[in-house]
Amino acid sequence: MLIIxxxxxxxxxxxxxxFIYWAIPMTVLLTVGLWRMFVKSNIRPVWALIPxxxxxxxxxxxxxxxxxxxxxxxxxxxxxTSVFGLFSDSLSERARLIVGVTAVVSFLVHFIYSIxxxxxLIEVYQARRRWxxxxxxxxxxxxxxxxxxDRFRPRWKVEDLRxxxxxxxxxxxxxxxxxxxxxxxxxxSVTEFFQKKILLRDIHLSIDPGRMVxxxxxxxxxxxxxxxxxxGYEKANAKVMLNGGDVYGDYKKMKYEVGFVPQQELVRGxxxxxxxLMDASRLRLPAEVTSSVRKARVNEVMDIFGLAPxxxxxxxxxxxxxxxxxxxxxxxxxxPSLFILDEPDSGLDGVMARDLMKELRAIANxxxxxxxxxxxxxxxxxxxxxxxxxAKDHQRTGRLAFFGPVQEARxxxxxxxxxxxxxxxxxxxxxxxxxxDEFIQRFAEVQHV
Length: 449
Known about the structure:
By secondary structure, this protein is of the alpha/beta class. The protein has two domains: about 1-155, no CATH class; about 165-449, 3-Layer(aba) Sandwich (Rossmann fold). It contains 17 helices and ten strands. A six-stranded mixed sheet has the order 6-7-8-3-9-10, sandwiched between helices. It has a four-stranded antiparallel sheet with strand order 2-1-4-5, covered by helices on one side. The longest helix is centred in the first third of the chain and has 33 residues, at about 95-125. It starts with a helix and ends with a helix. About 35% of the residues are buried.
């Protein structure tokens, strides 16, 4: 940002001379400092000479690559609007307003994301937090000190991170079971800012029929992404087998074997409970199923979830617990072998939430596999058999930190409560202990034994 303002000041015929005298040495300090910092992080130092691009590279060295995209784009937008501002006399009043507003917004975005990148630098360099003020207001001074002084060295180099990511966490596919769920998820990625971003990697597990499984992890660990990959809604580089069937390879058939209840309630308030479930039966049962069979299945599901007494009531008149049961009943119409629920107890009090979880436990006891995300796991943990723990590694990629029985999870993490386990793998800035990589590595070693 400082270089851009300096170029514009020099170009402008009414340049602020005191500003130029101050900005030139600060720009030199910033460039030299970033050059040396990039060398320390194994980034080509020539990037320190290129505005916008060097902001992005700085974010990579700070392990804040996603923030760096926004940072560099906002700086580019600010630069363009600043150049347009030099020719404001030739622009219309409306154009000047648009340019001015865009410049202000891009400046604010750049300022906010600069702070986020600087915080990442402080973490990577293990520096005191007070350095944040120096980076914000005197980046040239901060960069020159960190670049030249041997006291400031990053905990890791960018190249080392990539090498470690490939070598340490190479997963191995497990053989599919004839009955039950087998997940061999090698990678789930998206492309952002012309760059591949890995959301999940190396998740390999098998779940026997009749098991109720808790899916645990901090915010952003990839829990919902994992569920979407398992049910085939968002396909990954993975092989998902359910009772011998290929969820990806034969999705038209297997979709009836998987029930997924999202966190949002996808029901119309003006419909009755019966009408809602009949509509669900038309969508979730094969087309060849007769009308009488559909009605019988709807009546059976209403009895299972205690909805028969309110079958003629409007959905909008139902209580919160009844609405949750209705959402679950809609997916249970097809009698799936795998039942996945994303926070089914959200918005319910403790008693209602536990009653709902007991019903899910009863479903699992029928030989179904039930996977549940809940933000209050400890009040119902006695109802679960196993726990899947996902954690973000140092690259913010979701990985498998543990899978197994609840009691083994307590022993593995050295914690009794599930919320304590989440705290142990969360990053320090999230109020956690920051041990995610340690547990990911330990569990990977256990799996490969």
